[in-house]
Amino acid sequence: MADNVLKPLMLGRGVDAPMPVILLGALGGMATGGILGMFVGATLLALGYQIFMSWVATNPDSSAAAPPSATATPSSLG
After folding, report:
1. 18 three-state secondary structure
2. Predicted confidence (pLDDT) per residue in 34-69, tens digit
3. Which pLDDT value is given to residue 52?
4. Could you give the number of structural domains in the chain?
5. 29 occurs within a structural domain
6. Residue 24: its H or E element
7. Would residue 22 count as lying in a domain?
8. Which of 10, 32, 66, 78 pairs with 2 at a CA distance of 20 to 30 A?
C-alpha cells in the first residue's frame, strides 16, 4: 500500500529531482537528525538541487557574458 499510495502522493507533486538526490538527502538527514531529519534532509537537498539547476540554466557560461573591459590582462595587472 505504501508504494501504491504514499509514494505517488509524496513524490508526484511536481518534484523534478532525481531519486538518488532524494535518497542521499534522506540518508544524510536521518544520520544527523533522526526520523525528522530524514524528511527535512530530503526536502532541503531537493530544494537545493532545484535552485542549483535553475542557476546553471540561467548562467550557462558566465565568463562569456563578461564584457571584454572587465577581464584582466597581464599588462593591466602590473
Report:
1. coil
2. 888 888 888 899 889 989 998 888 876 655 555 555
3. 92
4. 1
5. yes
6. helix 19-58
7. yes
8. 32
CB atoms within 10 A of CB 60: 8
**Residue 66 counted as domain residue:** no
Kind and range of the H or E run holding 48: helix 19-58
3-state secondary structure at position 11 = helix
Question: Which residues span the domain enclosing 43?
Answer: 16-59
Q: Is residue 8 domain-resident?
A: no
Handedness of CA 29, 32, 37, 41 (dihedral sign): negative
User: 35: which 3 cell numbers?
Assistant: 526520523
CB 23 within 8 A of CB 10: no
Q: Collect all residues with Cβ–Cβ distance below 8 Å to 46 and sequence separation of at least 6.
A: 15, 17, 21, 22, 25
